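Our consortium's second objective concerns turning raw sequence data into structural hypotheses that experimental partners can test. To show how far this objective has progressed, the report includes one record in full. It was chosen at random from the queue rather than selected for favorable results. The single chain below, 243 residues long, was entered without modification.
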Amino acid sequence: MNKPSALGRIRIVLSHTTHPGNIGAAARAMKVMGLSRLYLIKPERFPHADADAFATGATDLLENAVLCESLDEALAGTVLAVASTARHRDLAHEVVDCREASRRVVAEATGGAEVAIVFGTERAGLTTEEVSRCQLIGIIPTNWEYSSLNLAQAVQVFAYELRMSAVGEQIYAQQPSDLATLDEAEGFFQQLEESFYLTDFLDPKEPKRLMQRMRRMFARARLEKKEINILRGFLSAIKSKVE
């Protein structure tokens, strides 16, 4: 089983969600990152029009959401459940950040196991009892002075980390550019130097290292043919005004 398909074995579990809009927003956050399995434990209001509105194209996740009466039911068959919580707890399980938690979840799912990330209610998060049902605590490293995250935002952060662990860094095709040749670049530099002299910006008796610095600057830019033509046209316009 490859890693992208492992996303299909990851459950996002929302426990006792009070605002239906957060359910919809969480579904949207999941779908955009390739997650599809939404489990809801006794949501206060669901189904609901607000959930559909906030889902914005991810209503299929809402239609297929699994409604559960308890966390045990939502986690049935899983081998690893991560509790998303920022509250300090006594006798807590191992605590890792969301990136490491996602790495472990994806590793288990890649091997064919069922896994879950569990999120608590908006008002108080997960209960101690709910955390005890999980095997790992995953935290989102937030600003210590202000650590409040909306439920859907927390789901989005975990969904992103899960996707990055499953898919990895992507290489995106770049629009091929027609780079300037050495001859074209040299023609530009010659015209640039002439413009410096023409405008008295550069003293021919003391040129110092200006052109060397200009060459270095434009070398970093990797100029394209069209860019060279634009610059040379600009220099020609300056020359016509000065003369």
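The partners drew two points from this record. Residues 97 and 139 are 5 Å apart (CA to CA). The chain has eleven helices and seven strands. Both points have been shared with the crystallography group to help prioritize constructs.
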